[in-house]
Amino acid sequence: MNSAEYLLLIGGMSLVTYLPRWLPLHWLSRRRLHPWLVAWLDLIPPAILSALLVPELITDGLPRQVVWGGPELLAAIPATVFAVWTRSLGGTVVVGMLSYWLLGLRA
Amino acid sequence: MTKTLTVGFPRHRFLRGLSAAWPICVGYVPIGLALGVLGQKAGLHPLALGCMSVFVFAGSSQFIAVAMMSGGSGISSIIATTFVVNLRHLLMSSALAVHLRSCPRWLLAVFAYGVTDESFAVNYPRFGSDRWGVGEALTVNHSANLVWIASTVVGGYGGQFIPAGALGVDFALPAMFICLLVYQIRTRRHLVTAVLAAALAVGLSLMVPGNIHVVLSAVLAAALGTIGHKIPGAGAKE
Q1: Do residues A75 and A91 both lie within one domain?
Q2: Do the interacting molecules here have an ipTM over 0.90?
Q3: A50 and B125: CB-CB below 8 Å?
Q4: Does the distance separating the beta carbons of A35 and B233 come in below 8 Å?
């Protein structure tokens, strides 16, 4: 890939990355939304965070397979308990990192 | 729902944004370094990769792009893949729009640049409070962005000399998502939706390669979650 092609690639990638981030903000922020759509959008954050996170914790490999008891899932247990208990973001990150690190040392 | 968002940028807003952004920054460093190392192996100059981080700023699609480049894929197929991978931000920006009604359009255009999984997860629950405005949110977006750009460039120059997995830093972002997900579970309905999304996402991820399972299961779980939801004022006379 030469420089011109690389710049074209970056240009195209930035466009298809930016537009989905910008268009809903541009259009929806000025519109009266149907209450049903608002109710649906209110559930999008827990749905999408869960959909991003949970497969990371319990699947691995290519093609993906369910792995019970991997270090990610085990480290998630103290992190979740700590998050529910203290609701501290920084603390949860530290507890999660430490647990994951200690689990790695054990292996 | 609508409330005044202060656009000014006093020092305390900047500091408040920074104090919310640090877990993202910690999490971005190892990922950015790893991407830098991969980019170098794929024959990309560290600054060329840094240039991609500036204009694209999308971690997972940058990883995929670098892998596809070393696999010899064409420009159009890399761009198409990037589009599909980033479709989930369509959902995130839609959810954010509800809270940004009073924000000027030009500022929305700036804000859009920094909408990532991580900044969304940090900003979205805070927009519900009076102490969070566009100033704080932009600080989160752009400090994460700067750390990301710097780590990808540094990784390209010497990332291979940093020991992998130091201090469990690879788990920083999953741990952050755990806590942010906990913040999002405000009612039983949110909990049910999250559990449904998790089950659907795991099931779909086993069947379909790539990451389309994220968008599909989020859309579906949120729709199922609204079943039985009573719309306030529905059926009442206008």
Answers
A1: yes
A2: no
A3: no
A4: yes
